[in-house]
Specification:
Layout lengths: L1 H34 L10 H18 L1 H18 L2 H7 L4 H41 L9 E8 L2 E9 L3 E9 L9 E12 L3 E13 L6 E13 L4 H6 L9 H13 L5 H28 L8 H29 L3 H25 L1
Antiparallel strand pairs: 1-2, 2-3, 3-4, 4-5, 5-6
Helix pairs in contact: 1-2, 1-3, 1-5, 2-5, 3-5, 3-8, 3-9, 5-8, 7-8, 8-9, 8-10, 9-10
């Protein structure tokens, strides 16, 4: 039994690696075409472009893990079926349910490996890729400046007109509010032309502090000016860096930190919750996709060829993943529960697929 199981796992691994190599090759080719217009500028050579594309491969593999693993596992089982090895395995005592279980175990092994790559190595490699590309093209810090942002930190609203490299802020305004998001009777507004963020506090230069007392008939406004002024904040460098990224570009840990920070400050975190639950449910979604495809592979080939059945199975699995993503977007726009919108469809399809496979295995 162990020899047969190792052989099946080896077959699935081989096909999955082939699919991954082809997938990365196609993406690398089109990425190289997109970089072609930049090659030759300053110090950006072909070698630098290849280095940039190579460092982006872990991120590409992580983002497209589900279709790659689905295709690899299904094509591997399809190869066993077309060479009649699947029939021999079933005659030797391996049921459809057992074969499917082995496929799922192999898929989960691939998922764990891809998650480790995506959560640990991909962010480091992608950051190094962007840094190397910017250095080769001699992009100045000013050209990398991102737009300003608003952020709530406890009882303060902070506005930054321009965020330079995530550490130097230009045009900073801090407005004190109360728990009801209203400006209190006695409040403070602090402005500064620039500030340095060290991960724990904002170090402002030439800060102007306006104290407003609205408890009287006429507002009493006092003004102070300081050469340097420090403001301790609760957010960190990771949160600031994540402002220029979409939720799918963040690591799971940074998404959790974003949700915690937004929840603590009574702000909406739906877009991050949808991405988090989508990632947590991804292994189960992949299993549901594989089970759907297995139903076609183990079906009768009298009316339709096995190649068409594999195509239909893979198409159905990928369609289900696409619908799951659409469901998350709909849940976000209509303010549905992100847990139910991501988990419920997967669980329903999983139960149906398992039930049909058990029936097929018994018959």
């Amino acid at each position: 039994m162990k020899i047969r199981e190792r052989y099946i796992r080896k077959t699935l691994l081989s096909f999955t690696l082939v699919v991954l190599v082809i997938w990365l090759g196609i993406y690398s080719f089109f990425n190289f075409l997109s970089e072609f217009s930049s090659i030759g500028q300053v110090n950006y050579t072909n070698l630098e472009a290849f280095r940039y594309i190579a460092l982006l491969m872990p991120e590409v593999a992580y983002k497209h893990a589900s279709p790659v693993i689905l295709l690899g596992c299904v094509l591997g089982m399809g190869n066993l079926a077309t060479t009649n090895q699947l029939i021999v395995l079933r005659i030797s005592g391996m049921s459809i349910f057992k074969l499917t279980l082995l496929t799922m175990k192999s898929a989960l092994t691939f998922v764990i490996a891809i998650i480790i790559i995506g959560e640990i190595f991909a962010p480091i490699a992608s950051e190094e890729a962007e840094r190397g590309r910017s250095k080769a093209l001699d992009l100045s810090i000013a050209s990398q400046s991102q737009e300003g942002f608003w952020i709530r930190d406890g009882e303060n609203f902070i506005n930054v007109q321009k965020n330079i490299d995530g550490k130097l802020f230009s045009g900073l305004t801090i407005i004190e509010v109360n728990s009801s998001n209203n400006i209190p009777t006695v409040s403070t507004v602090t402005t500064s032309d620039n500030a340095l963020f060290d991960g724990k506090s904002l170090k402002m230069n030439n800060a102007e502090i306006f104290s407003i007392d609205g408890s009287k008939d006429i507002d009493d406004i006092s003004f102070k000016e300081r050469n340097s002024y420090n403001k301790i904040v609760s957010f960190d460098q990771d949160l600031i860096d994540s402002l220029k990224k979409e939720p799918e570009e963040l690591t799971t840990w940074n998404i959790i930190k974003q949700i915690q920070f937004l929840s603590d400050n009574k702000l909406r975190s739906g877009i991050f919750e949808v991405e988090l639950y989508k990632r947590l449910i991804k292994p189960i979604t992949l299993i549901a996709m594989i089970l759907l495809a297995m139903l076609f592979i183990f079906g009768s080939t009298r009316d339709v060829t096995l190649g068409r059945k594999i195509f239909f199975g893979v198409s159905l699995g990928l369609s289900f993943e696409m619908l799951s993503r659409i469901g998350g977007a709909i849940a976000l726009s209509l303010d549905f529960n992100p847990v139910m919108s991501n988990v419920l469809p997967t669980i329903v399809v999983l139960v149906i697929a398992i039930t049909l496979l058990i029936r097929k295995s018994v018959t």
